[in-house]
Write a structure and sequence with these properties.
The complex is a heterodimer of chains A (114) and B (112). With 114 residues, chain A is mainly beta. Chain A is 0% helix and 56% strand. In chain B, strands 2, 4, 5, 6, 9, 10 and 11 form a seven-stranded mixed β-sheet that branches. A four-stranded antiparallel β-sheet of chain B has the order 1-3-8-7, with no helix packed on it. The model of chain B has no long low-confidence stretch (mean pLDDT 94). The chains are: A mainly beta (114), B mainly beta (112).
């Protein structure tokens, strides 16, 4: 069965510091991986996605993620945090053999301190 | 308006009542989804639909009913609401099952 684990339900960084949000998945077939962001009282918005084209994926707002098959990871990074990055972030996985049934991680709340 | 909309945005209902949450998308996406979001549980899939008249259960379907007679609409009905169904409900759509999903703004449902 597919699963996604986000390590750390809360991450706090200072403005200008590196952001690293961790996501590991389990699967026996090639995955499609996504990072979404949710601002308060809003729905989720896509940050970036991995669909087997390139292992380093660049998304919106300066975020990027690297797919590492050997580590079954898809960690999200941003070199320099901005106050506006404070939000909840979700990692999600789906597979071509299970199309439509995405599995979401429990989410990581990012706090950015001034 | 283009995009995906949900109504109502907020709803308070009593235990045992039937309530329907509406979802409408303007992209003609094939796939549509219903999730509930609860603290400590992230997003959990209730039902999804791959096309009009095709629906399937997700992780937590008990107590919910869906229909999809038209591609653009995917209503979710709680036949007899219970307090455990108090949650924020999100509708989403995607063109393909492996594509990114586009989410509505959510419906905050409280069952008293």
């Amino acid at each position: 069965a597919q699963s996604v684990t986000q390590l750390g339900s809360h991450v706090s960084v200072s403005e200008g510091a590196l952001v690293l949000l961790r996501c590991n998945y389990s699967s026996s077939v090639p995955p499609y991986l996504f990072w979404y962001v949710q601002y308060p009282n809003q729905g989720l918005q896509l940050l970036l996605k991995y669909t087997s084209a390139a292992t380093l994926v660049k998304g919106i707002n300066g975020f990027e993620a690297e797919f590492k098959k050997s580590e079954t990871s898809f960690h999200l990074t941003k070199p320099s945090a901005h106050m506006s990055d404070a939000a909840e972030y979700f990692c999600a996985v789906t597979f071509s053999t299970n199309a439509g049934k995405s599995t979401f991680g429990d989410g990581t709340t990012l706090t950015v301190k001034p | 308006d283009a995009g995906i909309t949900q109504s109502p945005r907020y709803k308070i209902t009593e235990t045992g009542r039937q309530v329907t949450l509406m979802c409408h998308q303007t992209w003609s996406h094939s796939y549509m989804f219903w999730y509930r979001q609860d603290l400590g549980h992230g997003l959990r899939l209730i039902y999804y639909s791959a096309a009009a008249d095709i629906t399937d259960k997700g992780e937590v379907p008990d107590g919910y009913v869906v229909s999809r007679s038209k591609t653009e609409n995917f209503p979710l009905t709680l036949e007899s609401a219970t307090r455990s169904q108090t949650s924020v409900y999100f509708c989403a759509s995607s063109e393909l099952g492996t594509d990114e999903q586009y989410f509505g703004p959510g419906t905050r449902l409280t069952v008293t």
